[in-house]
Write a structure and sequence with these properties.
- The chain is mostly helical.
- The protein has a domain of 46 residues.
- It contains two helices and no strands.
- Helix 1 crosses helix 2.
Length: 79
């Protein structure tokens, strides 16, 4: 998870500290969404490969476009 400098908990929780925790939660949620999407793309690609027997699919088929989109999404998410 990305790290933002910690607030001082020795003092009362102020607006800055509350903002930090809100952002920390948002970052955690976005990271989880990214991981979920990556896993969904990998699952879809495995299904696609299984059902096409790893053979090339004609480019004019919508499934070929979806496979390309999923491969691109996986590559981007793994960066």
């Amino acid at each position: 998870m990305s790290k933002i400098s910690r607030c001082n908990h020795d003092n009362d929780v102020d607006r800055q500290c509350a903002d930090y925790h809100r952002l920390e939660t948002e970052i955690t949620n976005l990271e989880q969404q990214r991981n979920d999407l990556l896993e969904a793309c990998k699952t879809a690609m495995a299904w696609f490969d299984k059902h096409t027997n790893d053979e090339p699919v004609w480019e004019d088929q919508p499934s070929a476009d979806m496979a390309t989109l999923m491969q691109d999404a996986i590559a981007q998410a793994e960066k």
